[in-house]
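Subject: for your reference before the review

Hello V.,

The reviewers asked for a structural picture of the protein, and I figured it would be easier to keep everything in one thread rather than splitting it across files. Below is the amino acid sequence we used in the manuscript, unchanged from the supplementary table.
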Amino acid sequence: MNNTSVARLDQATQIATFRANGTGVWTLVSSSWNDGDGNSGGYYAAFSNPKVRNQVLSQTGWDVTKTDGMPGFSQSFNNGKIQTVFEADPLGASFEPILIFQDFNDLAPGKYLVNQTFILVMELWEDPQNQNFFEIKPDGTRELAVEYSGDQIKIRTSILRRYQAARQLDLLLFADTICKVTNQTDVTTLRKLGYDEVSDVEAVHLAVGKLGTSENTAFSRLLMKRVIPPLLREVSGLWPWESGETFQEFIVGEDEVGNPLSSTCNPSVLADYFGSNEGAPNYMTSVFFKADVLMKYFESPSTFSVSSSYLKCAGLWGLRIDYHRPDQVVVALGDLGRDLPESERHHWRACNIVPSERSMSLEHFQSSVLGEWVETSSPTERFKAAYLRTNAAWEKRWGWPLFRTPTGDDQFLLKRLRVPLNETQVEFENQVLILAKLLVDHLNERQLGAGLDKIDDEKGIAKFERFATTLGHLASDQAAQLLRKIYKLRSKHTAHAGGDSGKRFKESLLEERTTVAFFSDLLEESVELLEQLTLEVTNQLGG
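And here is what came back from the structure prediction:
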């Protein structure tokens, strides 16, 4: 027998690989393979009560197999009679499966089901497209937690360990691997390679011998088991063992020489108007941020909603904001600590600015402090409301909306629209593009042209102009001019933005205004025309 054969049959590589499982980012909880070169095997995993740890390590066989743990009925004799009992948890208090294989005996595809207790306790969401599970983070993002990949199922180790800690369960990892080597005749030497080894956390059984069906083929079978004890319950991070929250400091002012002054946002140590924590900054102290702080939220419209007074992460969390001015966002110091997840506060801290001469908006003061109803002055919100009102009025009058509902990649256009958050070219171009898509690209061309004489290659704006003129809309000329202006702005600015001609075009267009001021005016101009179109259609309806 040569050294290469010994190295394969002692399965040292397989042992090292198995010992590494559970120590990295991912833990394989189910796996099977056959490389066609004599190597095959599988991994599996389960949980167990630490009280049976010695029993578990007393033998190397798998304590839990893929079909164990399936609810069902059992029968036993009791006083000479058959007693039937339903067992919701047939493994009892000793073991808990991580996976259960639902087998349909080749009549339908079998399926591995993840333990629902594990899923519910760790609050994992299943993607119906691929069966993978995700952890929903406090910032609304999704992190892959359980991944199905071919013949493998792996779970993020941190989630397994946190569940273990909360439940105080051992994690059992199993391996069963076989290696075959041809052209071997020394049976005595082969058998000497086998051994049994048990420690406090591991049991190994390696058997080596001749394959009964072949005179010159040797094989080794490795049965291996590892026990990973649970960490302390506090590690789980689940209630009531959550880790202590860290509260960042935010700039709330500056001293006489211009150095920024900061304060914690921990609401429990801030002063209020009822005498608590005298001498500390007040809970309602205004904290100022660059408008860019909202960029990540506008650009994730499926998760976040942004208005001039509120930022919302689906149903997870919400934050009162003052975004009535395009150059700043204002938040109460205590709200940052009470309403924002700790992970999100790092993002806000990076956009924090010195108050200087800044103040909260009049609208925010009237609505939040005085409790008065205030009509928004935000061009963005005024446009969005006018856009929806126009569509509703046209649908009521004609049976179809003036603007088609954006779908696919464009479905969140209206939520993403805003006054540019900064003066960069990219931000300006993106908002011009969105506005052009909403007002020009999504004109309901098919319905606008349905009752008109056909003109070859006629575009949407021309169809709208003819349709509105035919009906005597007074705003038709102005509306068509505005739509052409926006269309031209989108096409020419995007096409020439990189060169000198693009700069000249932009300068002539802005007329010494900033891009923020120009776009605000463009939105207001759009609002006026949308409101006029709505009014004319409403008047035709008699109301």
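For the response letter, the relevant points are probably these. The longest strand covers residues 170-182. The chain has a mean pLDDT of 90.

Happy to draft the paragraph if you're swamped.

O.
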